Structure formats: C-alpha cells, structure tokens
Amino acid sequence: xxxxxxxxxxxxxxxxxxxxxxxxxxxxxxxxxxxxxxxxxxxxxxxxxxxxxxxxxxxxxxxxxxxxxxxxxxxxxxxxxxxxxxxxxxxxxxxxxxxxxxxxxxxxxxxxxxxxxxxxxxxxxxxxxxxxxxxxxxxxxxxxxxxxxxxxxxxxxxxxxxxxxxxxxxxxxxxxxxxxxxxxxxxxxxxxxxxxxxxxxxxxxxxxxxxxxxxxxxxxxxxxxxxxxxx
Length: 231
Description:
It is a single chain. The protein is an alpha+beta fold. It folds into 2 domains: 3-193, Nucleotidyltransferase, domain 5 (2-Layer Sandwich), CATH 3.30.420; 199-231. Helices cover 39% and strands 20% of the residues. It contains 9 helices and 9 strands. It has helices at residues 51-57, 61-64, 70-81, 91-104, 117-124, 132-138, 151-165, 203-219, 225-230, and strands at residues 3-10, 21-30, 33-42, 85-88, 114-116, 168-170, 176-178, 183-185, 191-193. The strands form 2 sheets. It has a 5-stranded mixed beta sheet, sandwiched between helices. Strand 6 and strand 7 (176-178) form a beta hairpin. The longest helix is centred in the last third of the chain and has 17 residues, at 203-219. It is elongated and about 90 Å long. The chain starts with a strand and ends with a helix. Residues 169-196 have low confidence and may be disordered.
C-alpha cells in the first residue's frame, strides 16, 4: 500500500475548543525511500493562536492572514492522501484535528489506515522518551536545524525515523520485520515482538551435556546422532 507521512501545526491543543489547523504537510514514500512528491500548505485559521502554540511553531495570525482557509485546500489534500496509509506521530492528535476541519468544511472524516509512530516507538523503546527529537537522536538523524516545529520539516524527519524503526526485511506477507529488534509491524502499526531471549550454557552445563552424550553413545554402541551432528 502507498504510504504518506503527515503532520499538522495548530492554534492550540484541542479542536473541541475551537482550535484550528494552521499548517499541514505530507510526503509520499517511495518504497524504502523518501520521495520528492510533497504536499504543503499554510492555512488561515480565522482565529487567534495560543501563545504556547506560537512558541512551539513560531506562526502568528498576522503571518497567516493571506493564506487560504482549510476548506479551500481540503480537495487537494484529500487527493494527495487518497488510498494511502498515513504515517503520523501521535496520530490521534492530527487525525482529530483533520476530521474536525473536514467536518467544518462539510466533508466526511478520513478513512485511511494509519500507523502511529509514537505507539510503535513506545512498543520498541518502553520507558524511554519517544518524541521526535529523542527518536532522531536514537536513530542518528540530523535534526540540528529543527529550532521550531514545522509540519514540512517534521514530516521529513519522521519519514527518516520511520525508516529507522522499520529497518529490516520484508516477510512473504509484505509485513516489515526489524532484524535488529525482532519486531513485526501489523497493518495498524502495532509492534509485536518476535524474538526469543537466548541464554548460552555455562561451562558446568556444557560438561553435563557432554557427559550425557557419552552415556548415550555407549548405550547405543556408537549410534548417538547428537554426537555425529556435533562432530
């Protein structure tokens, strides 16, 4: 399935309180690479931006006054992500805002399959920080130019993080498996650990094993299969 990495910036934290999207960006994946096909729009939210949100992304209402409204860019956005599996960090946040905006525009909610990279990261790295900056550090992705949040920049970084998290081989079913972490990713982005912890035998256990094989060798008059295999 075609994959698209998506991110938004908003006027605040909760669309139920009237907050709106002010920036949306999406990047199409080309197999295991980031393609040059992107979608990026700034949006006039038609309302003030919370100080806390502005401190994160640096966008102001004055800067966005001449940008199109969400309803005007919605058809192009929907066309870009049509039929794609969306890769989003903290997906409930972005999907909640997108569906709220689509509702205001008189359009139905999204039906795309979604991979929530935050959920995947928590499965892979329990108890650790799993925000985008932390993941960039963990997967050695240069994010030194990320002084403020921005939807386009964040999709570029998230695409690289996703490739790092899913590095491995394709199974016969087309599911991505990480050779490093022994993790299989299901269609909805959940990570299932496949690896089994291996404990090597100590010297005492090896001695007992060898003694047992010698007893089997004598009892079977030289027909101990395990001895032949070890030889």
